[in-house]
């Protein structure tokens, strides 16, 4: 049994979301990546890649003092399978970071930057508290886009209208 640590607690939160998130990602063909439900909305492809990348951000905030959007690694998949591989790799990286982090290290400051300019700073713990919710939020957006494009929504917290199992 794993010791009770903040990292292990958040790993359980992440694990509770991984399966449903992956089911969403595996259903999205690259042909719909340019879709936007409104002119001010993100493109479906951007949102898909964002959802696939959020677990990496968990690792980054534990491992580094900041993330700079201007220099952060950019991911340009050649196909939908690469998105799934990226998500799986990011989840594993998050698991590794969460399982190894000491509670005290989460009191350190983490900053979000853009081209070196600090956009936001807070404790790593505060950022971690928000990150799983951030994943859930953007996955929710993604399911709306999926519905609009006629892509079946998987069961997330119970049966979906597309996967009724009575």
TrEMBL record:
InterPro entries: DinB, DinB/YfiT-like. Pfam families: DinB (PF05163). A divalent metal cation binds at residues 134, 138. Transmembrane segments: none annotated. Keywords: Metal-binding. GO terms for molecular function: metal ion binding. It comes from the Bacteria. SUPFAM superfamilies: DinB/YfiT-like putative metalloenzymes. Belongs to the DinB family. This is Damage-inducible protein DinB.
């Amino acid at each position: 049994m794993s010791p009770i640590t903040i990292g292990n607690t958040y790993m359980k939160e992440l694990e509770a979301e991984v399966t449903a998130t992956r089911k969403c990602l595996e259903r999205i063909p690259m042909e719909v990546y340019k879709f936007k439900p409104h002119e001010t909305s993100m493109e479906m492809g951007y949102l898909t890649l964002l959802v696939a990348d959020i677990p990496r951000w968990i690792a980054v905030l534990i491992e580094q003092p900041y993330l700079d959007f201007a220099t952060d690694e950019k991911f340009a998949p050649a196909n939908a399978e690469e998105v799934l591989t990226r998500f799986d790799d990011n989840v594993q990286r998050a698991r590794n970071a969460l399982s190894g982090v000491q509670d005290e290290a989460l009191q350190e400051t983490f900053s979000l930057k853009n081209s070196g300019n600090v956009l936001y700073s807070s404790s790593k713990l505060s950022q971690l508290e928000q990150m799983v919710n951030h994943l859930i939020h953007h996955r929710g957006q993604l399911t709306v886009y999926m519905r609009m494009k006629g892509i079946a929504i998987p069961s997330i917290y119970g049966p979906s209208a597309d996967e009724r199992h009575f």
